Structure formats: structure tokens, C-alpha cells
Amino acid sequence: MRWLLVLLGLAGQLAPSPAQAHEVRPGYLELRQTAADTYDLLFKLPALGEEFRLALYVTLPDDAKDVVAPRALFAAGAYVERRTIRRSGGLVGQSIAVEGLSSTFTDVMVRIEDLAGTTQAERLTPTKASFVVKAAPGVSEVAATYVRLGIEHIVSGMDHLLFVLGLLLLVKGGRRIFYTITAFTVAHSITLAAATLGAIRVPEGPLNATIALSILFVGVEVARAERGETSLTIRYPWCVAFAFGLLHGCGFASGLSEAGLPQHAIPAALLFFNLGVEIGQLGFVVLFFALRWALRTLEVPAPRWATSIPAYVVGVAGAYWTIVQLQPLASAFALRVANAS
Amino acid sequence: MRRELRKATAISTVGIAAAFVFTQMSEAEAHLVTTGLGPFYDGVAHLFLSPEDGVAVLALALFAGMSETATSRAVIIAAPIAWLFGGILGLHVPVLPLSPWLTIATFMVLGVLIATNFRLPRATSTTIAIAIGLAHGLMNGGTMTATSEPVTVLAGIVSSLFVSGAIVAAMVVSLHAPWTRVGVRVVGSWVAASGVLMLGFALKTIA
User: Fold this and answer.
1) Contact at CB, B170 and A293, closer than 8 angstroms
2) How far apart are alpha carbons B13 and B109 in whole angstroms?
3) What percent of chain A has pLDDT above 90?
4) How far A105 CA sits from the closest chain B CA (Å)?
């Protein structure tokens, strides 16, 4: 009983606390190159009514001139300023700052798009109120950036890792595991490329709900396998891995589209993003087997009830995400039905 | 000799724990790394980027691996649990930054035990693991009070401690050639030597 109380106390500590809302909205600065020396500038700031705005001002290089007079207006709780500027030689290598940022708690999100469609994203904070406009990155820079993005996407996306964990728990035997993981990898590589290049388009809401459902499905199958039952998934896990891998690839593609693609190096970015995803996935698989080997070597006892825990963790997480993802879809459907009637 | 060393170990253990119970006064400085992958991974990276905790975990795992399997298992399970409890406690109770002394004590105790290949009884080994886990967890918790989502960071630290500790301990357990175990003892002597070196620096600073 005492141990139960201690465990309950610990669980209370580990329970997530409610998220706190941001008190200050961020600003937004966009620079879109329209000609070799010309840029359209959009600067958006949070405003109070139609009079008060944050005292933040964009500081451009001294030799950058306004082509036409700046236009500004208050709209929907924001101050919006539009300018068209020209600087001989463009803005690459030049420093741009937001004056007054250091005395606020606000961030300013920055997006720069050059003529080739290459984007540079920056986040200015009170401690970092300026940035330098970069030239379009070379292949090595694209490789490093997108490999890192791929690794980040898979390690921070618990849904993909839980699905892989489910497969690893489901499949026994080295060769079968190799085939299953390969099937998942091949499938998600196909749809990642297809979705990124615009060959297929899957709406995000149903896609995320189906990905969540795939985790729930694999959790149920792991629990069935633990009980000694059999099914198509248990007998031919690579088929299911391939089918759901196609969906997960579309999920990876949405992660890649959030980051943006350099228009001059789309194939390289796609290749290296996928490589990053595979590195992250392989790292997870290696870690899983290393830990399993370590626990066996140390003869850590696994009670009968404890062997089912991973299956239930995967299944419960899948069920939770499915409900979360279905909620907005159900609301939208209900609204449509209400409107129709 | 064996009895005396056991006594000395017990004294060191009590010393580490007592130092922390009686010296909880002010807030420690934060020294957590930011990976950009969120608080859990910040915690995971912490052990690999903070030598005072990383080497302590390595030494604990080597010590566990050099012990018999049952002791090894107990150490590997007890240390992360103690670290977690210490961390949660450290979040709520201000802890005096005693990092150099804690590091010196951990390195020297574990380093000497590994280098001499001294087999302690399971209970003593587990007590040492709990003491080190609690003390380091307290320090981590104390430094994380200003961090957002400190419990998630702590979960990351404890997860990486368990996984890396178990893997290293299992690797040492699976070593059979005598020279390989000598190699582990050499690493233990380096850990102890680092502790002695740090002690020298600490005493010089005081002087």
C-alpha cells in the first residue's frame, strides 16, 4: 500500500501540466524578392485597436531605398506595413534588424524568399534582434540541413517511432524483422517522394487520423501475438508494414513541406531528408535491440503481466491519438450536416 | 581489509547523502543543454554532454558490470529510480551547488572500486547506486527549477541513464577474456585519477 502511494505520488509528478498560453503575439517580417535588386516587404505587428502598435521598426541596410512610399494600415488586431525596396546587389550578406525588439517580450518570425523560390526562415527574439540574409545554400549545406531535419522529424514524431516499436514487438526472428522494416522503409520512401513532388495529395486531417489508427492497429496485433493468437498481420507483418508505410510516408512529406524545400535542389533535399529519417529509424531499431540484449544479459526478470505493457502502451497511445485526430473531423462533419439540413 | 573497505564505502555513501540533506540552501545554476528537439531530448543529451553526470553514469555502469549479475541488475535498476526521486525532490527543495565535491566523491569511490575490482555485497552496491543516483538527481533537479517542463527533462535524463547504463553494464558482464576486464579496471583507474585531479584543483581554489 505504501509503495502504491509512493508510485501514485510519482505519477502525479510526471503528469503533464496544462499548457500556458503565450501572452504576447509574435510579429512577422516577410521579404520576397521580385527582381535582382527589388524586394516586397511585409511587416505585421500585434496592435491594440486602430491606434496602438508595438514600437518595432525594421532596420534595413543604409543603401536600401523605398521604391514607392510605404503603405500601412491597422486590420484585425494587427498593424500591417507594406514596402517595396531596392538595393543594388540585392540583400544577400546584408544584416537586417528589428529595432526595439530587445525591450519587448515579443518574437518576430522572418521569412525571406529569393527569385528561385528558396526560403530562409529566422526567428528574432529580444536577445537576437538581427539576422544576415543568406545566399542560396549549396548541395553540401542542403544535405546537412535536410539530414538533420529528417532525423529531427522522426525522433520528435513519437507516432512514427511507436509504429516502428509495434512492428519490432510484433515480429520475431532476424530475417522477418529485416523484411518488415525494409517494407516499411520502401513504402514510406515511395509516398514521401510522391507527396513531396505533388504526384499525390492526401488531406492532412484524415491522414493523421489514419496514421494514429495504424498505431492502434499494430498495438492490438502485438497484444494478440503475446496471447499466442495468429492473424494475417502476425503471419505476414511486411504486408501491413508496407501498407501503413505508405501512409507514414505522406506524414513525413507533410513534415518536409512544413520545413520548405529549396526550389533549386528539390531532389537533393528529398533524398537527404529521407536519409535522415532512415538514420533516425535505424538508430531507434539498434537501440531497441541493444536494450533488449542488455536486459537479457543482465537477466532482468520480466513477469508475465509486464510483457504485455509495451503492447498496451502502443495501443493506448494509438487510441488516444486517433480520438484526438478524429475530433476535428467529426466536428466538421457535424457542421456540414447541420448546414445541409 | 575487506571489512575496512566496506566500512569506508558505507561512510562515503552516508557522506554524500548527508552533504545534500544538510546543505540545501540556495538555488544552483542551470547548465542544461538545448538540443532543439524538445525537453525530453534535452534530458537525453544531458548525460552525454555533461561530464560530471556522464562519467558518473559510465563509472556506475562499469562498476555494475564488474559485479556479479544479480548485483549488476540491482544497481542498474536502483540508480535511475533514485535519480528520478532525487530530481523531483531537487525541483521542490533548493539545493546548494556542490557539483565539484559530488563529482570528486563519485569519481573517487566508483573509480577505486572498479580499479581494484572489489566485489561488494549486493546491498552495499545498491546503497552506493542509490546514494549516487539521489545526489546527482538532486543536483539536476536543483538546476532545472527555471527550466520549462523540468519533469520531461528529468524523464529524458533517467531514460538515457537506464538505457546507456544497462547497455554498458551488459557489455562488461559479457566480457570473458581476462585482458578485457583489465581494460575496464584501467578505465576505472582513470575515473579515480580524474577525481583526484579535481580534488587537487578544488583544494587549490580553496587555498
Assistant:
1) yes
2) 9
3) 24
4) 16
Backbone phi, psi, residue A52, to 5°: -100, 135
Amino acid A11: pLDDT: 47
Q: By the CB < 8 Å criterion, does A297 face chain B?
A: yes
Q: Do B69 and A298 touch (CB under 8 A)?
A: yes
User: How far out from the chain centre does Cα A331 lie?
Assistant: 24
Query: CB of A50 within 8 A of CB of A78?
Result: no
Whether residue A6 is predicted with pLDDT greater than 80 in this model: the reply is: no
- Name the A residues in 195-234 with CB < 8 Å from any B CB: none
Q: Which of A158, A286, A295, A298 to mutate to test the interface with B (most CBs of B within 10 A)?
A: A298
User: Residue written as cell 544479480?
Assistant: B70
Q: Is the pTM of this model over 0.90?
A: no
Nearest chain A residue (CA) to B154: A14
- Number of other residues whose CB lies within 10 A of the CB of residue A11: 9
In angstroms, what separates the C-alpha of B97 from chain A's closest C-alpha? 23
User: Distance between the two ends of chain A, CA-based, in angstroms?
Assistant: 57
Cell 534535452 locates to B42
Between β-strands A78-86 and A65-66, what pairing exists: parallel, antiparallel or unpaired?
A: antiparallel
Pairing of strands A108-113, A27-35: parallel
Q: Secondary structure of chain A: what % helix, strand, coil (to 5)?
A: 55, 20, 25
A42 residue type, one letter: L
- C-alpha separations of B2 from A51, A289, B127, B130 in Å: 81, 38, 17, 21
Length of chain A: 341
Q: Would the CB atoms of B37 and A10 count as touching at under 8 Å?
A: no
> Grid coordinates standing for A308?
504485455
Phi and psi dihedrals of A108, rounded to 5? -125, 120
Q: CA-to-CA distance for A230 and A249, rounded, in angstroms?
A: 27
The radius of gyration computed from the CA coordinates of chain B, to the nearest angstrom, equals 16
Confidence of residue A259 (pLDDT cuts 50, 70, 90): low
Q: How far apart are the first and last CA of chain B?
A: 33
Task: Measure in Å the smallest separation between the Cα of B146 and chain A Cα atoms.
Answer: 15
Q: Which residues of B touch A298 (CB under 8 A)?
A: 69, 72-73, 76, 166, 169-170, 173
Other C-beta atoms within 10 Å of B109: how many? 24
Question: What pLDDT is recorded for position B96?
Answer: 65
Q: Would you give the distance in Å from CA B143 to the centre of its chain?
A: 16
Sequential pLDDT tens for chain B (207 residues): 454 445 444 434 444 444 444 333 333 444 566 767 788 888 998 888 888 888 889 999 999 999 988 999 999 999 999 999 999 998 888 766 666 777 788 888 889 999 988 888 899 999 999 999 998 888 888 888 777 788 899 999 999 999 999 999 999 999 888 888 899 999 999 999 988 888 888 888 777
What the block records as the C-alpha cell of B58 is 559510465
Number of A–B residue contacts, CB under 8 Å: 46
- Return the exposure string of A148-182: e unless at least 16 CB atoms fall within 10 Å of the residue's CB, then b: ebbbbbbbbbebbbbbbbbbbbbbeeeeebebbbe
Report the gap between the CA of A220 and the closest CA in chain B (Å): 25
